[in-house]
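User: I'm curious whether this sequence folds into something compact or stays loose and floppy. Could you predict its structure so I can see for myself?
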Amino acid sequence: MTKIVVLTGAGISAESGLKTFRDADGLWEGHRVEDVATPDAWERNAELVLNFYNERRKQLMMAKPNEAHLALASLESKFEVSVITQNVDDLHERGGSSYIIHLHGELLKVRSIADPALVYPWADDLLLGQLCQKGSQLRPHIVWFGEQVPLLESAAILCHDADICVIVGTSLQVYPAAGLVAYLRPHAEIYYIDPMPHISVELKKRRNLHIIPMKAAVGVPDLVHKLLIPS
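Assistant: Here's the prediction. I'll summarize afterward.
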């Protein structure tokens, strides 16, 4: 079966009303990334960090998958599909996709600060004093700037094995996620869907690159239709 790997970024979630990355002004929902998305921020002001992610969690509850999420899930009727996302929301899951790697963590999970393997589903507010089963404070299950990306190797393997790569709503400028394109084999077809695509040095090397300068909710369903019903 043909294997498709989908790389998604903030652009696909933005069309559902979410902002999940560093904006051009250096802010994430009005906060400096350095104040809410780094280990130092946690050490300086854990309560501020927890409040920030509590608000993001509430915002996520109000959001719904858009046409791009739904269309990607429909690819599974014909292809083996893996979604690798830089987003921390659960819109791909709610959109119906079966296999998703969250490179930067998941907003609806928390983990122990003492044992990263202790991960719990979490839909409510997370407060200081709420502890894991070993008695350590819980923190957002988010990969902050400056931390290792534990699922990067698994994502690289999926990219290497893919026959088709679909890139949606990401500039591919933030490493290490941006480096995943380098793992694609020379024959892999690449479809890049973004209203303002950033053609990286690695993408410029690719002969099988197809640029679709559209928003995700328009460009993804159009591409999925063509892949499922080729002319």
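Summary: The mean pLDDT is 92. The first strand starts at residue 3 and ends at 8.
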